[in-house]
Amino acid sequence: MTSLTQPQASFADLFTPKLVTVLKEGYGGRDLRTDAVAGLTVAIVALPLSMAIAIASGATPDKGLITAIVGGFLISALGGSRFQIGGPAGAFIPLVASTIAIHGYDGLVIATFMAGMMLVAVGFLRLGTYIKYIPYPVTVGFTAGIAVIIGVSQIRDLLGLRLGAPEPAEMLHKLPVLWQALPSFNPAALALAGLSIAALVALKRWRPTLPGMLIVVVAGSGAALLLSLPVETIGSRFGTLASGIGYQGLPGVSLARIRELIVPAIAIAMLGGIESLLSAVVADGMTGRRHRSNCELVAQGVANMASALCGGIPVTGTIARTATNVRAGARGPVAGIFHALFLLAFLSVAGGLMAYVPLAVLAAVLAIVAWNMAEKREFASLLRASPGDALVLLAAFLLTVFVDLTAGIGVGIVLGSLLFMHRMAEAMAVESKVRLLDEDIADRDAPAPADAGRGRDRRIVTYRLSGAFFFGAAATVASVFDRIGQPPAVFILDVTDVPFLDTTGAYTLETFVHKLERAGTHVVIAGARNSVANALAHFDLKEPRLTLARNLDAATAAAEARLAFSGVP
């Protein structure tokens, strides 16, 4: 029989960057040219998107470009995916905005650096595999919630509203402020945003190969400048922006500050890990390749620490830009490095042009991003799937929108886990050819056998368990065992179809075996897998206390031999 156990991977197998792998495979001039073209294509997409995400996050647009340059370079150079493109992500907008609103930009820098350290630790501890166990309804729920938050956060610039105070990050506080500011809407900003959205939709439908976002940003900026439209621009709101990248370092760090920022840091690390590995999986599906998840998390951690030190915001793998990279024909991580270098060239040479970009146009770009991010079909499908899945979905969605992302993911995972345990417990079955008592009669002096009056041979009774025997199913199995009447001479328990036994399940079996022992019954366990046998052994459920047989036939033969030897009638 061929073993399905995979050989233990070495450190080099797990943590060698894909860039090294690609270069070792042979990398020539044609590959370099192809990756350069793919990198330019992705940079054209990332340019307006990085600025828009930074603005929506409560930061300046140059910080979005710095994040894409520093983070994008390191993720491609050190990561475990051939095609991953790193940068600021729309999923981070509500989290970053709330962190800046509560703790200031300095607080975000410290939280981002801490999150980077956490991701490096998670990667080196090889825990990246566990991120894939987040339930699908949770992923769809918090993604849809993030999309709603992004969409609502663009209302101010889409309508050109004038707010008397900074826009709150929390949804419940944000909506009343926006409602009160509605009378101040700017018709020019609304028209420019509406035309930009229409142009983005049209280009996506009829010319999907063109860089629609960049075209719309350039055209919208030109129209606002030539027509002297009274709309707010990057320059009018943010003033002069940085035109390069430099080391900024960490602001004052203290133990009290670390305690204060530990929750947002964990949230940034969690979301960054989820988003990056989802993006890597998408790239694998498009190319047939396979990423190294733990190596990718280490790269994400290093990139976040570097982004924080250079004055950026959180960075992660981005699904849309990674997919664009694959479709552009990228051969490997060099394309991602080129993407970062092209963005650096723009920031250094033409960074001053950012001042002319209308915020209404960038809001239109993010409105489209939010619409595309919301997995509408999947959301509707999960609502119809089952009440349990709908509950998990809505909990993750509503908590993300009205509380925060950490609560949405945390509660969603807990509810999803409870739902899974309930379903696994329901799948646990206890079967026997001997019928159970029809009624549970308490305090009976002489309990009648379960098949009393049916003329069956009570010397040997066989029960079969099927399904994972864990704490969620223990109560069900225990209630069945408690209803067994007169104990037989030999009790055979067939666990061939039990793939997993936890300590609660093993304790339940030990309690039942102890009860049978006091009644003089010998127990034979059939078909226990190695993992199940080891769990039983921890509770002294092993020979000679009982008999272990490799299958049911062997168990039956052992039971009959014991009866013949003891002379039980």
TrEMBL record:
<dbReference type="InterPro" id="IPR036513">
    <property type="entry name" value="STAS_dom_sf"/>
</dbReference>
<dbReference type="InterPro" id="IPR011547">
    <property type="entry name" value="SLC26A/SulP_dom"/>
</dbReference>
<feature type="domain" description="STAS">
    <location>
        <begin position="460"/>
        <end position="559"/>
    </location>
</feature>
<keyword id="KW-0812">Transmembrane</keyword>
<keyword id="KW-1133">Transmembrane helix</keyword>
<dbReference type="GO" id="GO:0055085">
    <property type="term" value="P:transmembrane transport"/>
</dbReference>
<feature type="transmembrane region" description="Helical">
    <location>
        <begin position="185"/>
        <end position="203"/>
    </location>
</feature>
<feature type="transmembrane region" description="Helical">
    <location>
        <begin position="210"/>
        <end position="231"/>
    </location>
</feature>
<feature type="transmembrane region" description="Helical">
    <location>
        <begin position="391"/>
        <end position="420"/>
    </location>
</feature>
<dbReference type="Pfam" id="PF01740">
    <property type="entry name" value="STAS"/>
</dbReference>
<dbReference type="InterPro" id="IPR002645">
    <property type="entry name" value="STAS_dom"/>
</dbReference>
<feature type="transmembrane region" description="Helical">
    <location>
        <begin position="261"/>
        <end position="283"/>
    </location>
</feature>
<feature type="transmembrane region" description="Helical">
    <location>
        <begin position="64"/>
        <end position="85"/>
    </location>
</feature>
<feature type="transmembrane region" description="Helical">
    <location>
        <begin position="134"/>
        <end position="155"/>
    </location>
</feature>
<dbReference type="GO" id="GO:0016020">
    <property type="term" value="C:membrane"/>
</dbReference>
<keyword id="KW-0472">Membrane</keyword>
<dbReference type="InterPro" id="IPR001902">
    <property type="entry name" value="SLC26A/SulP_fam"/>
</dbReference>
<dbReference type="Pfam" id="PF00916">
    <property type="entry name" value="Sulfate_transp"/>
</dbReference>
<feature type="transmembrane region" description="Helical">
    <location>
        <begin position="341"/>
        <end position="371"/>
    </location>
</feature>
<protein>
    <submittedName>
        <fullName>SulP family sulfate permease</fullName>
    </submittedName>
</protein>
<feature type="transmembrane region" description="Helical">
    <location>
        <begin position="105"/>
        <end position="127"/>
    </location>
</feature>
<feature type="transmembrane region" description="Helical">
    <location>
        <begin position="461"/>
        <end position="481"/>
    </location>
</feature>
<feature type="transmembrane region" description="Helical">
    <location>
        <begin position="36"/>
        <end position="57"/>
    </location>
</feature>
